[in-house]
Amino acid sequence: MKKELLVLLISFFGILNIEAQSLYFYSLEKKNNNFDSLVLAANNETVDTVKAIKSYQIAATYFTKQDIENYQKYLKQGLENSHNSPVYRDIGLYYQSIINYAKPDAVNLLEKDFTNIESLLKKYNSNEAKKIRIIMFQNKALFKMIQNKEVESMNIITNKAIPLAKSLKDYELTGALYKSIGILFYNSKDYPKAIEYMNLAENSINKLKRQTAQSKAIKGEVVLFKADALMRENKMSQANAELEKTYAIIKDYPESNFYSLYYCTLGYYHMKQKNYPEAVKLFAKGLSNAEKYKNTVIAERIKLFEGQLNNELKDYSKSNKIFKEVYASTPYQKNKQEVLKELSKNYIALKDTTKANLYAERYINSFDSLNTVSIHKNIAVLEAKYRKSERDKELVQKQLEISKKNKYMWILGLASLLSAGFIILGFLNFKKNKKISEQREVNLQQEIKEIQQREELALTKAILEGEERERARIAKDLHDGLGGMLAGVKINFSTWSSTHLEADRHKDFYKILNQLDNSVTELRHVARNLMPESLLSFGLETALKDLCEFYIRKDLKVDFQPINISKNTPLSIQLNIYRIAQELLANSVKHSGATNILLQCSQSDENFMITVEDNGKGFKEEDYRKSQSMGLHNLKNRVDYLKGKMEINSDDEGTTINIELNTHAVS
């Protein structure tokens, strides 16, 4: 890790590079007045524990300034003043460990240190100890993000850091943690979720009674990230409002290192608006600020935007030069992938087939799409479980309150019995209250059951929506990105071969060219299968018809019978119905050995019927029950999600599956 990154995680703030992973502390301090006051107060302090914590904070600040001599001086002072306090002595271990930020293997060393220190601090009930634990959890989550272990990062934040921060009612820490979840969703290209969590982060910071320079810096980051995500969703007017909000926060701090991120994001806004001269100026300002404060990650982010800007201006030579510089210096795999994709597109535009093909191949080999899908899906599942857990806690609290009321009622009943003059009246009153209490208990259990059902529905919805977003993203990347690049390579090969090769003498080349053409066709089939364009453009009936035609071959006939399929059904419901039919047809084609398949779909008001019949070999019911197929699991999830029923009849003459769904099951 480079020397310049000494200013890493003394606090716990993270910023986005092109894929939102960085470790950098932003400051909105005008001068050193606050720091000078802290040094003076620490030197004059007479209470050992207070002097210890102030000394630790001073040591950390000197470390960010790369003043190791003063860092060690105040660290030693803090440890000496903690000799009678085990909790402050153990807190000192955290500040002692930050020296490892200057070492090449910083992430591994710090992760090991933080694990050991956290195990020591968790035995203390001190708020200061809890805050240090939260900071270490936040740092460990960021380490996992850097290592492309997003699922582990999400697990640390939601299951360890946030519950601890909420128990302290520390809105600043909670806001920073929500921001980290937003960054994870940004990296997954789930921009609506990223915006949702940035809003939660901003709302948390706004609950502070007094805004500090530190809390303002967190809020400024959050608002800028939100603006960036809104631009990715092409919501430019909303993004502009967030940019104006950011400027209102930072305008009084002209010398702040925050301007590198601000100018970078504002420059991207003008680039999206095709105001290229203004974007160039802003990128230059941002780069100057980033280099001044040694913020290498934002400098890299700006250079990537400059490469894309020159691509849009068709200055491919300059664009390629910038991208190659970034590729040589970046430690981030995702940025390397972005560069390879952009270089391939540039060389296609330059009609340099050899280099275009080279970079396209390196781009394709640089990542594992299936693993990426799994990671992003698991993040969505963890987030949905976290939301469910939060609502369950509220439900338990409500149950405790009712139990408390019931306890008071029992006490009241007993007190009535002890009143000699009102024994009978008290007894009757007690029985009445008990009956009411029992009825309330029944009502509560019913309410809990209904809430649990709603939560399970919400969890299923989150998982299914996450799947569809990921399918849509991959389909777009395949069709518009990789598909476009391969098609460009194929066209350039065809153009070149028509003037340089003879068809009769170079049959092997033309055979390879034909294979490339088939690969492009197959890739587009895969993209359409992931997210059917006909469904989005023409509706469910047309999409199902296209799906049936896709499976038709010489030895297989697939008939489609639509009956009264409405075009007004919500798109999310249409998509779930399409996926159910797709899974049924795929299973029949793959396993039944049928020569004839019938798909019949009919709709009557909110009821939607799906019937699939084939003349295949059938299967035993116990085989279906035992099956652990992911496809069958997803099929059952979707049927349950739409409050549906499924009936299967199968024998050696074929299989019939009937499914009844409710199109109004989900609002």
Automatic annotation (TrEMBL):
Every Histidine kinase domain range: 473-665
SMART domains assigned: HATPase_c, TPR
Alphabetized CDD domains for the sequence: HATPase_UhpB-NarQ-NarX-like (cd16917)
UniProt entry tagged with the keyword Coiled coil: yes
Coiled coil spans: 379-406
Reactions this protein catalyses: ATP + protein L-histidine = ADP + protein N-phospho-L-histidine
SUPFAM superfamilies, sorted: ATPase domain of HSP90 chaperone/DNA topoisomerase II/histidine kinase, TPR-like
Ranges annotated as spanning the membrane: 408-430
PROSITE patterns for this protein: HIS_KIN
UniProt cross-references to Pfam families, sorted A to Z: HATPase_c, HisKA_3
Keywords: ATP-binding, Coiled coil, Kinase, Membrane, Nucleotide-binding, Phosphoprotein, Transferase, Transmembrane, Transmembrane helix, Two-component regulatory system
UniProt EC number: 2.7.13.3
One GO MF term: kinase activity
Protein name stated in the entry: histidine kinase
Organism the protein comes from: Chryseobacterium lathyri
